[in-house]
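step: validate -> pass
step: tokenize input -> pass
step: predict -> running
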Amino acid sequence: MPRAYETMLILRPDMSDEPLEQLLNSQEAILRENGAANLETTNKGKRRFAGFEMKGFKEGLYIQMNYEAEPSAVATWEKGLRINENVLRYMTTRSDLV
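step: predict -> pass
step: emit ->
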């Protein structure tokens, strides 16, 4: 049974517009291939980290993705995020819990 999820991605702040769009399109395609629906992607912009660095960066580009998918699809997608050098951090939460 598909569940609603929200994933917050923190990407490298030095990504230009074209590589950023390619990355987001490829990640959306992976989710769709694994059965995700109602996919919404929001660019929250560049934000400074609070007193620490993440992989040598003091700020990051925040992207919010909301979608419905099977838990196995999310797990498969996250395996790819772990090895992507443009992704500094990510966090997925179920958003259908009341």
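step: describe -> The mean pLDDT is 91.
step: cleanup -> pass
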